[in-house]
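INTERNAL AUDIT FORM
Audit reference: QA-55
Scope: verify that the stored structure record matches its stored sequence.
Auditor: D.O.
Record contents follow.
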Amino acid sequence: DNRAGLNGKLHRFSAMRNRDRDMAGITIRIGRNVRGNAAMLMDFLLGSDKSILILGEPGSGKTTIVREATRRLAERSNV
């Protein structure tokens, strides 16, 4: 695996390699943490036993909202 991360951070570094396995480039992902964007989702998560499907374009914040919902659920359950 050509990925590495920083402990406790959402940032990630990935190496791109050519056919000879030489490094051809580096991708740097800067993760975001947006608090408060899961407020509406929390009503559904706490009030129902139904599944939720989150759809959206790449970069639209799907993972960000799931992270925030997870953080809030863990906080609520003292995990």
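Auditor finding: record pair retrieved intact. The first helix runs from residue 39 to 47.
Action required: none
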